[in-house]
Structures are given as structure tokens and as C-alpha cells.
Write a structure and sequence with these properties.
alpha/beta, Collagenase (Catalytic Domain), Hemopexin, 3 domains, 6-stranded mixed beta sheet, 4-stranded antiparallel beta sheet
Amino acid sequence: MLKMSQNLVGEFALEYLHHFYGYQPKPDRRKRAAASRDDSNQTGFCDKVKKMQRFFGLSPDGKLSEETLTVMKKPRCGLSDVEPHEGAVRWRKRTISYRIAGENLPFPASRTHKAIRRALKLWSSVSLIKFRRRAAKEADVGIAFVSGGELYHGDGFPFSGKGGALAHAFLPGLGIGGDVHFDSEEEWTLNSTGISLPVVAAHEFGHALGLSHSPDPGSIMYPAYNFAPSLELSFDDVKRIQHLYGEPPPKTPDKCDPDLSFDAVTELQQEVVFFKDRFMWRKHPSFVETRITLISSLWSDSVPSHLDAVYENVEKNFILFFKVQQLMLQEGFPRNISDLGFPSRIKSVDAALHFRRDRYTVFFTGRECWRSVTFSHFPSFSLIWLFVSCWDKFRRDLKFNL
């Protein structure tokens, strides 16, 4: 692939910062390269570059480095990253109607509608919002697949074709407010390969409900498209949408359900605690029966629901809560599990088991198990062996340690 010339790089960066970070170069200098050091706009330009770099977790040096340009070139949402409006604009009702235009659909109508419903359900399942489809009448949220190129499709924000802005949405309101437009020239898919329509749709519906962009790469509201997407909300996404539209009452799991499974199980002091969704069962020697309660009743909002693993380190007097790819503790968190010493290829922890007598912890990740070597503020880890080959040894340890 041919590299862009310095002038083209400057023009591209100017357009990107103008559209997504509010940079306003002087009209007569708009077409000068951003790298021109004698341009009086350079200070303002560098400030916008730094702002963009901070948002995406890059080193804020104000320079158009290769890493910075790579992020700028990623497919992304067409809305700005610097217009926070959280709480200021939202629908004043709980049932929101939507309508899908029948032109330029990327898939047969039934499959397209199913993808849209899947994205909408992501938000309605964690809040008090309900969505109602309309076939012909005007709706609160109009959904359309429009041509890019030079066509403005009536909203003043044209698409530039493949690889640029994938879609954009408008905040809740009358007229075009709440509408969502997708670039019909993009090669959409219905799964996690390529550009997934359900993932992008879920992001845009977040805007249509009143959410702004998030700098968290794990959030569905992250502006750049992640190439290994999963259709799920982050803890922050859930909290933000519930702040706008309320939290649904919790559904209590039935402990007699034969299909009941647990997210995590651990021993905390004298209790054995079972975690499921936002609930936990506490089994204590002095309890007549195992009691169920909300996780938040013990740890407030500092511990999320749907945990992946939990364990208590008695010697160091702390409890680790694992959630997807993040570690939750009292302060300075969430943080990536790579901070614990895991290599970057490890994306999640399936289970954690602490051996009190021998003072070490074993973590299970797929077909591998890891053992803690030291316990300082953060433990460091070294791979022992494949889980299959080491199970006999751990079975003996389990017998004498649990």
C-alpha cells in the first residue's frame, strides 16, 4: 500500500480533527499541510491532536505519529468525540418507536430486522426502555441505509465510502432527532467477522438514546470499530443507560432450577459464596439455610454483576473480582488483567482458586492454568503446564486444602 504524502496526511488529519474534535483552521489555510511549522494554527492543531490522543489512550505528544494516524484511519462512528451531553438530552418516555426504511438493505428484510432487534434488545434488557416497531407511520427512531459518496442524504453529513465513518445517529428529539443512518456501501456482516451490523447498530442506538462516546475500548460506545467485537455492554454502558432511563427490578434466580449455573464460587472467611448475575447465595455454618441477597447489599456499586471469577487472599486481606477482561478493586480500577502479569493473549480468567495452606493461587484460562509466584501489591505469574496434564496434582492439593 502506498504511503500518503505529507500534504495528504496533513489534509486527512485536518479533516479528522475538524469533524471529530472541533478543530477550526482559518479558511484561507484550510488546505495547508498540518505539518507546516510556521502556520499560526499549529498550536491549536497540536492541542487537538493531544486531545484525540488522550481519548484513545495514546501518548499525548501532539505529533502525527504512525500510531496516531493508524487510529485516525480506523472505521468509526461519524459523531464527534468532544460533545458530552449525558443526561441533557434523552427521550421523555419509556416506549420508543422505530422504523426501518426498505431501501438499500444489506440483507433480506427478515435478517436485517432481526439484527436491528438484537441491537435494540441489548439496551432494553438492562433498562426500562421498550421498543415498538412501526411499519408505515413516522417513528421516533428512523433507521436507513443510505448511499455515501457525495450524497448528503438530507442531513448534511455525507459518508465517504468504505473505511471511513460507518454510521451516525442523532440525539433524541423531533424531526431527525433519534434517527440512525448506515453507509449502504459498507460490506456489512451479521457476525463477529468484518464489520458487524448488530455491533455498529447497538453503538448508534446508544447515541439515539442520548449517550455520548466513551474512551473505554471495552465499551459499546467506543467510537472506533473494534475488529474483534462482541455484542455486549460494559459495566459503564449499563450504568450510563440506567442513569437516563432507570434500572429494571432484579429477577431472582430460582435455586431449585435444574438448569441453574453460577458465575463464580469462592470461600470468604467462614462462608461459601455463590455468585449469579447480580445475586449471591451465602452458605454459613450458623445459617439454617443458604441465603440469597444482592451483591450490592455487601459491596455497594463497587462490584459489578455477572462476574467471571472471585477469590479472597487471606494473607494479604483483599478480594479479587474478575469481570470479563477487567479487575475490580477498591480504587484505581478497573484495570486490565495484564497488569497482574498475564501475557496480552490472555483475555479472560475462567476461574481462580487460592490454596491457603501453601499460600499460592491458581488461575484457569481455557486449557491452561497459571500459578502465582509472589504476592506484592500485584502478584506476578508464570505458566506451569497445560491444565489437562496437571489436573492429577491439583486434585491431590484440592483434597488437602479445601
